[in-house]
Design brief:
This protein is mostly helical and 218 residues long. It is 80% helix and 0% strand. The N terminus is likely disordered.
Length: 218
């Protein structure tokens, strides 16, 4: 039976999906600099030329991997921050801010379907060359500014430096946990395991809450 135009379109779409999936895995394993389009093409079982045909070079493909995945976590954080903004009690609001920032990303890292993008986000957030690519700025600067604004409203007695350092402390904790490769579980004999997202959130939210709410009051 002869192939139709629709069959060709489906084949192209399947190739794009395979390329994106392979790129996510290879970039997560090797990082941007060490990964090559050839490695991605082999993983996707497509010709290298097809990768270049569908995506604008390695950086274009790298950026597309993030664009395909990040909206879910971003929308979850936005929803959490919107709920926090409606909370009148400052301590409860602060806890809700912490959960809104942390929960979507930690879930992303340890959900099997999205674990590679979680690793990739942690890599990109700590890569000295990330600013040149602008991916974190493009996707998360708006959220960062909104979170900092809400922290200001929740902690009105704090200086701008204290507010921003509080935000950075929250993000730094999140990124470290997302990048964890088993050391926390090893050091704790399994008592602390980032793969248990609910238990991890209970512990670190309590610790961060004490630090952010009480750190500058002493």
């Amino acid at each position: 039976m002869p192939r139709t135009r629709k069959d060709g379109e489906r084949g192209a779409e399947n190739a794009r999906v395979r390329i994106l999936k392979a790129a996510e895995e290879v970039f997560a394993d090797l990082g941007f600099d060490a990964a090559s389009l050839r490695q991605i093409a082999v993983q996707a079982d497509v010709p290298v030329a097809l990768v270049s045909y569908h995506y604008d070079g390695k950086l274009g493909l790298y950026r597309e991997v993030f664009r395909a995945r990040y909206p879910r976590a971003v929308e979850q954080r936005k929803a959490g921050l919107a709920l926090a903004q409606m909370e009148e009690d400052p301590k409860r609001r602060l806890e809700m801010i912490l959960r809104a920032v942390l929960a979507p990303m930690l879930t992303l890292r340890h959900d099997e379907a999205t674990s590679n993008i979680g690793v990739l986000l942690a890599r990109e957030a700590t890569d000295p060359k990330a600013a040149e690519r602008g991916i974190i700025a493009e996707m998360f600067d708006g959220l960062a500014e909104g979170t900092i604004k809400l922290l200001r409203a929740t902690l009105p007695g704090r200086s701008e430096a204290e507010i921003v350092w509080s935000f950075q402390m929250i993000i730094g904790t999140m990124v470290y946990i997302m990048a964890d490769s088993g050391r926390t579980a090893f050091l704790s004999g399994g008592a602390a395991d980032p793969r248990d997202v609910d238990a991890t959130l209970r512990t670190i939210v309590a610790l961060l809450l004490n630090g952010v709410a009480g750190g500058a009051a002493a």
